[in-house]
Write a structure and sequence with these properties.
single chain; Aspartate Aminotransferase, domain 2; 13 strands; alpha/beta; about 40% helix; about 15% strand; 7-stranded mixed sheet; binds pyridoxal-5'-phosphate; Aspartate Aminotransferase, domain 1
Length: about 425
């Protein structure tokens, strides 16, 4: 069985060789990951050689326009998405906000929208606001279990009815780490005659989703957590996009990709984004050679390498946390493709900051926050102002990183 070659992987991330960054065992990847070398190289090229308005009549301008087009095309191929369905905006929060303005125009009094309380607020607040004023839109909540923080699909089944127009849920919780079977979720929602938007921000650092197989109407994630630049990626099904109420300049209405991304595009960030897919290709070629597999198959097998490696690391951390009797949010064991290596916990005896500071003194970086999953923390009976400790890993974390984390955690808990 092919396993992940971590030396190769880490050689693709200049951060590991940098004196400031390299000494850290980094466990706040769910907040933002290191950038892969092809992304940095492309951004450097743009900044030095092509930082001009794109799509104009000069070579540097054409260079940037082509690089931006390439990022659209490469992500569409990697996500198995239709041409013209992938857009870039400043962040996922901004993308859902604008998308909600578009959807608002087509909703009527009595229409229903379902959100969870497990999501990051970016996939809740924008949709909850659809009921503002006298819109008459009803928002229903698919609530997580107050003990485990997990969602039960049977509860969604009970909420959904013939007035439901939209359901919004996450592919993977940024606190509970649970990866949902979104293909089954999409089927359930479509069978009920509604549409579904999925937040892939916490899922996509662990692998590229196959959007054709999933079938969601909307899918969004943040490239700064997937080894890329600070951008949000928004997928909208082409048949929805072509008629969606235009949020861009009136004279651009005929361009589907401008309808829900009204801000001027961030040229350099978009131009370098294809470097994320170059990185995936390099990992695939290194492990599997050039065997002619199609893009979706290559993305899937790289994702599988990542998942196996991450689950092994996560299980070591979860085992220690179980021994220490801290409250773990979400499943307390990891399985590839079922639970991401994003582990949030709260100690009954040691304050979050004391834990984080102790880890820091060992050059181990974690996060302490509500991580904008404010409603989930409240639902679990915890205080969002205090938050939780989160240690989040991706495929480039090593067994040595985990050794250092476990030593420091064992001391402090
Ligand atoms: C699960 C999840 N969804 C959405 C967001 C918001 O993404 P952005 O910072 O691009 O607005 C985050 C950010 O942390 C997140 O973790």
């Amino acid at each position: 069985m092919t396993t992940l070659d971590l030396d190769f992987v880490r050689s693709q991330f200049p951060a590991f060789a940098h004196p400031d960054c390299g000494k850290w065992a980094f466990f706040e990847n769910a907040g933002g990951s290191y950038a892969a070398k092809p992304v940095i190289d492309k951004l450097q090229h743009y900044m030095v050689a092509a930082k001009v308005q794109p799509y104009g009549p000069s070579d540097p301008s054409e260079d940037t326009g082509n690089a931006m087009d390439l990022s659209h095309a490469r992500f569409e191929a990697a996500l198995n998405a239709e041409p013209g369905s992938v857009m870039f905006g400043p962040s996922t929060t901004m993308n859902t906000y604008v998308l909600a303005q578009a959807l608002r125009e087509e909703l009527s009094a009595g229409d229903e929208v379902i959100v969870t309380n497990q999501d990051h607020e970016a996939n809740i607040g924008s949709w909850r606001r659809l009921s503002d004023g006298n819109s008459g839109v009803v928002v229903r909540e698919w609530s997580a279990n107050p003990e485990s923080g997990r969602l039960d699909v049977a509860d969604l089944d009970n909420l959904i009815n013939d007035r439901t127009k939209y359901v919004f849920a996450t592919h993977c919780s940024n606190l509970a780490g649970e990866i949902h079977d979104v293909t089954a979720l999409v089927k359930l929602v479509h069978d009920a005659g509604a549409r579904i938007g999925i937040d892939g921000v916490s899922y996509t650092p662990h692998g590229m989703p196959d959007l054709k197989a999933i079938g969601a109407d909307f899918y969004y994630f943040s490239l700064y957590k997937t080894y890329g630049p600070h951008q949000g990626l928004l997928y909208v099904k082409p048949e929805i996009l072509k008629d969606i109420p235009n949020q861009g300049h009136f004279f651009n209405a005929e361009f589907p990709d401008k309808r829900v991304t009204p801000a001027g595009p961030m040229h350099g960030e978009i131009a370098c984004a294809s470097g994320v897919i170059d990185y995936y290709d390099a990992v695939d070629a290194h492990h599997f050679g050039d065997d002619g597999a199609d893009t979706a198959a290559r993305m899937a097998r790289v994702g599988h390498l990542f998942a196996e490696h991450e689950a092994a690391l996560a299980n070591r951390v979860l085992a220690l946390l179980r021994d220490k009797n801290v409250r773990i949010i979400g499943p307390d064991t990891a399985e590839p493709h079922k639970r991401a290596a994003t582990i949030a916990f709260k100690s009954p005896t040691v304050a979050n900051d004391a834990i984080a500071n102790h880890l820091r003194s060992h050059d181990v970086a974690c996060g302490v926050s509500d991580f904008y999953a404010y409603r989930l923390i409240e639902a679990l009976g915890m205080n969002p102002e205090e938050g939780v400790v989160r240690v989040s890993m991706v495929h480039y974390n090593s067994a040595d990183d985990v050794d250092r984390l476990l030593t420091a955690l064992d001391d402090v808990l």
